[in-house]
Amino acid sequence: MTLLKREEWQDIAGDVAWTYGFVDEDAVYPEIHSGTGKVPREAWAAWEESYKVIYPEYVTTQQEKETSTYAVRAALQRSNAFDTLSEGRKSATKMHFGGVALVEYAGLLGELRMARFGLSPRWRNMAVFGSLDEIRHTQITCSSDTSSSAGIRSTTGRRKPSTPTTGSRSRCATCSTR
Q1: Which tens digit of pLDDT belongs to each residue from 156-170?
Q2: What is the phi/psi pair of residue 147, to 5°?
Q3: CA dihedral over 160, 164, 169, 174, signed as positive or negative
């Protein structure tokens, strides 16, 4: 069996839109969530994503990004740069890690809303990838919090070991993930 090239099936798969027979479309996509506003439905149907991605490509790209993140983290752990910072800068660094995790999590909630209530099937599909991206950003930030990485030492002055997110046993103080 031969596999189709992505270009041969992606347009068809991207336009999967359901016709609802037992419920009114306004109940499925309430304006308060979908924000129909002044954009006509025909414009939503014609919307084209600015870039096309499929799941295997997404995973490969994210793996490359994560590898880079861990390489930077490892280099910073060998550095004494954090030790030379003033207490104010150390506190600002810690605040940054906590604040960024919250912003990324808020971005996730927005993407999930678009994935559910988007008026275009292509929009909903892209929002699913956006959700995955925001989850990864939150996880990387939480795994890079001040207690476990980037050369930042605990209050005892000892370095805590850094482990990848999947094997980490430290808890992120911001979002309570492991």
Answers
A1: 344 444 444 444 444
A2: -95, -10
A3: positive
Q: Which two tokens stand for residue 113?
A: 């809303």
User: How far is 36 from 20, CA to CA, in rounded Å?
Assistant: 18
In terms of Cα–Cα distance, which of 131, 138, 94 is closest to 111?
A: 131
Whether the model pTM is above 0.90: no
Instruction: Describe the chain by its helix, strand, coil percentages, rounded to 5.
Output: 60, 0, 40
**pLDDT (tens digit per residue) in 87-121:** 888 888 888 878 888 899 999 999 999 999 988 88
Q: Which residue has the tokens 């919090």?
A: 145
Structure tokens at 26: 């306004």
At 29, list the tokens. 């996509």
What tokens appear for 19 in the block? 């016709």
Break the chain into its structural domains and give their ranges: 51-178
